[in-house]
Amino acid sequence: MNKTEEPGTDDKPPMRDLLVSAAFELFTERGYENTTIDDIVRLAGVGRRSFFRYFPTKEDVVFPDHEHALAEMVAYLQAAHSDQDPVTTACGAARVVMRMYAENPAFSARRYALTRRVPALKTYEISVVWQYERTLAAYLERRFSHLPDGGVRAYTVAAAVVAAHNYGLRTWLRAGATGDAAASVDPALDMVRRTFHEPEDAVVLIARTGTPLWQVVQKVETALKRDSSGS
Amino acid sequence: MNKTEEPGTDDKPPMRDLLVSAAFELFTERGYENTTIDDIVRLAGVGRRSFFRYFPTKEDVVFPDHEHALAEMVAYLQAAHSDQDPVTTACGAARVVMRMYAENPAFSARRYALTRRVPALKTYEISVVWQYERTLAAYLERRFSHLPDGGVRAYTVAAAVVAAHNYGLRTWLRAGATGDAAASVDPALDMVRRTFHEPEDAVVLIARTGTPLWQVVQKVETALKRDSSGS
After folding, report:
1. More confident position, A140 or B219
2. Do B155 and A167 touch (CB under 8 A)?
């Protein structure tokens, strides 16, 4: 039997996880407001200082994976190929957050129930979401820098991506986080991608139904000639 | 001289305004964190209880018009004609917030400077913005209820409207809030309107430049026939 196969101390959950599960046990049992940090460290069997080493405040223990997901999102955006459509890349980056929730469905469902009940946690969550949104906006602002409306477009697309992602995620959470999170989130992100993705080098013609064909043809002919570099 | 023309007591700013200007004087002079509610009421010359009658917390005094703007937004949405495009209506409702900022440019600029410096105020502001967003989303969800993706579309459009509005507003605030706020905000909202406004009863055809005209004509003909109820 070699070292990596040995059971025992290596299987003990790290202190951080112990604190999170102690906290959630107490939050569920006696409510978030009625639980003190002292209660949490007592149940986890660790010192007060250990708590603050991992979590600056009581709110932070509710969102233990947020810093990690944010770092992963940044890495995803940095690794993205510049020839991929920026909106598609932003949607892919949002899926990093979805995967974090999907990795631990039971915990995600408990947190969702808690966050809905406690206004302080709702406020905290909104500012967490804002950090994701700003990260996506900063990326998109670089990618859209050649567009005259690149700045406003970057912030608007980032907000749309995050809103669609969160809508899909909430749908999954409300259904008890039992099914496939991607089945809720992906169609939502796809709506944003289709809305904002404008193929370059293309003609878009909008015509009322019932328009005489000759009129439409005239318009198409003019547009194709104007935009084509080959003629 | 009739009653309404009498100067004097009626010109005295109401207690609420006194508290707001005392607070901002102190925030600017000694910083937000170093100002207590006791300092504010002392400078305003009122009792502590008067402060709490108007503002539940110290953060609230920084956003004194928010409740009013939110109520005005709700009234705007309720009064909107149902034959107006929902996205256009949502953009109009966002302009309510813009007008609140534009009515008092000097105060808006001071608050912007303060909010950027104090993280607690930034968090408060983000949750204020979230309330506007939720109000727009609830309206859009009703208007989009006939669409298969009405829910996600409502939340996405609401987020896009708010993000574009705030981008325009920030541009104006960063320039010292001296020019016309609408000149920054309106083009931003217009981008969202154009992006999400899909005319009903219309055909959208997308073709690569260089596509032979006969191929495009064939597609147009098929699309117009399929969508037209008259043929």
Report:
1. A140
2. yes
Residues 79-138 of A with CB under 8 A from B: 122-123, 126-127, 130
Question: What is the arithmetic mean of pLDDT over A118-140?
Answer: 94
Average pLDDT over residues A192-205: 71
Pairwise CB contact (< 8 Å): B205 & A205: yes
CA distances from A201 to A36, A223, B208 (A): 60, 11, 7
Residues in chain B with pLDDT values less than 50: 1-9, 199-200, 227-231
Does A183 contact B at CB distance below 8 Å? no
What CATH fold (topology level) applies to the domain B12-60? Arc Repressor Mutant, subunit A (1.10.10)
B67 touches chain A (CB under 8 A): no
Among partner residues A164, A213, A229, which is closest to B221 by beta-carbon distance?
A: A213
For residue A203, the tally of other CB atoms under 10 A from its CB is 21
ipTM field: 0.80
CATH number of A63-196: 1.10.357.10
- CATH number for A11-60 (one of 3.30.160.20, 1.10.10.10, 2.60.40.730, 1.10.10.60): it is 1.10.10.60
CA distance A64 to chain B (A): 19
How near does any CA of chain B get to the CA of A199, in Å? 9
For A152, phi then psi, to 5°, come to: -65, -35
Most B-contacting residue of A57, A125, A152 (CB-CB within 10 A), to test interface: A152
A203 and B204 within 8 Å at the Cβ level: the answer is no
Residue ranges of domains in chain B? 12-60, 63-196, 201-231
Quick check: pTM over 0.90? no
Q: Say if residue A204's pLDDT is above 80.
A: no
pLDDT at A139 over 60: yes
Q: Which DSSP string do the residues of B185-230 spell out, in sequence order?
A: HHHHHHHHHHHH---SSEEEEEEETT--HHHHHHHHHHHHHHH-S-
Q: CA-to-CA distance for A109 and A122, rounded, in angstroms?
A: 15
